[in-house]
Amino acid sequence: MADALAERIRSGRLKEGERIPTQGQLVEEFKVERRTVRQAQALLRQAGLITGGGKGAPARVASPHAQGVVPEEPQETVAVLGPRVIEAFEVQDVRIDAICLTTETLNQALAEPLRRVQARQITPQSVRIRVLVPARSLSLAFPRPAEDSVTEDAVHEHWLTLRNRYGSELLKRAREITSRGIDVDVTLRTLPVTPIAKLYLLNGSEALFAFYNVTRREEQIAGTPSAIYDTLGAESMLFPFELHAGRRDEAFVQQSQAWFDSLWGTLAEDNIELSS
Question: In angstroms, what is the C-alpha Rg of the chain?
Fold first, then answer.
């Protein structure tokens, strides 16, 4: 498939700057798995024939002067995560692992693929989601008060309410798709640390990583405008790494999965309570 696409580019059938067919279109045309399409795209990137090709950026024919791999530009989490989670649901056995502060952005990203499952537009056999969030008893590094107008306890209770709300929504959505005959397992565990970065692992083949940038902002807490130090996770720049996009990406994906599994099997606890 990579050779066929390379021939189209070199012959001019696909011109500079033009989008190449989407991953779904290539799966249909060549009757291959999506993994094979990604491998082919990685080879074309390495040959300098295309740019992009990740789920957050369409693959386009590169300039004739391009050489080597053109890195995909990171984008805000809210723009990148949703499309990638949708594609993650196109396999038979969906596996998603996440480390985050409240699961708010993950819930948003899961809304569309779960809607498609409900509508029987996609039919995975199993869905397994594992999420690590901070423990309720933890003294968080953030969010925390930025001035004396609000107490640390009030800020903590505000965060806890959000964590519990989005955690409950995640479990509710999971229960809804079990009626479609899908084997669903969604588990939330807690960690005794504040995550300074968020990580999403999709089907063991992708790692999406973003730093939590802490800033001073105003938030309504107990009905009062309050200055706090907090992070806007949806606006964090998300860096994608793919298993078949070169040795560097492969190592990052594998090490990220190993790190998550180590936390899940050691420090994580099944003591989460989704009520204030």
Answer: 21
Give which of 176, 179, 169, 14 is closest to 102, Cα–Cα. 169
Helix (H) or strand (E) holding 248, with range, is helix 247-265
Cα–Cα distance, 127 to 89 (Å, whole number): 8
Backbone angles phi, psi at 246, to 5 degrees: 110, 165
User: Which amino acid is located at 89 in the chain?
Assistant: F
| 96 within 8 A of 85, measured Cβ to Cβ | yes
113: exposed, middle or buried (Cβ count in 10 Å: 0-12, 13-18, 19+) = buried
Burial level of 231, CB count in 10 A (0-12/13-18/19+)? Answer: buried
Mean pLDDT of 33-39: 78
pLDDT tens figures, 133-168:
999 999 999 999 998 888 999 999 999 999 999 999
Instruction: Provide the CA 70 distance to its chain's centre, in angstroms.
Output: 21
In tens, the pLDDT along 189-239 reads 999 999 999 999 999 999 999 999 999 999 888 888 899 999 987 788 899
Angle at 52 between CA 50 and CA 53, to 5 degrees: 90
